[in-house]
Amino acid sequence: MANYTGIIGILLILGGWAYETWVSVKAGKSPIPLSLVLLYGIGSALLALYAFSLNDWIFMVLNIVLVFMMLINIALILKNKRKERK
Predict the structure, then answer these.
(1) 28: closest CA among 59, 62, 73?
(2) Residue 29: CB partners within 8 Å, gap ≥ 6?
(3) Rounded to an integer, what distance in angstroms lies between the CA atom of residue 43 and that of residue 19?
(4) How many domains does the chain have?
C-alpha cells in the first residue's frame, strides 16, 4: 500500500512540474525566479543523494527528475537574461 501511495504522489508532483516546465518551454521563458529555481534544484539534488543512501527509489526518481526540470528552467532564465542584455 505504501508503494502505491508513493507512486501516486510522485506522479502528481512530477505531473505538476512537467506541466509548468512544458508551459515555460512553450513560452520560451520561466515565470519562476532564478533564486527559487537554484534553491529547489540544489535541494532536490541533495535529497536524491539522501534517497539513494536510503535505497528509496520513489524519492530518488522524483528528485532526479526535478533536478532536470530545474535545469531546463535555469537554461530558459539565462537565455532570456542574455536576450535582455542585447
Answers:
(1) 73
(2) 76, 77, 80
(3) 20
(4) 1
What does the alpha-carbon distance between residue 26 and residue 18 come to, in Å, rounded to a whole number?
12
pLDDT digits (tens, 9 = 90+) for 21-44: 999 999 999 999 999 999 999 999
Q: Under 8 Å CB-to-CB from 25, ≥6 apart: which residues?
A: 72, 76
Instruction: Assign residue 42 the CATH number of its domain.
Output: 1.20.1280.290
CA nearest neighbour of 8 among 55, 67, 62? 62
Segments forming the whole domain that contains residue 19: 2-85
Can you tell me which residue has the cell 502505491?
A: 4
pTM (2 d.p.): 0.85
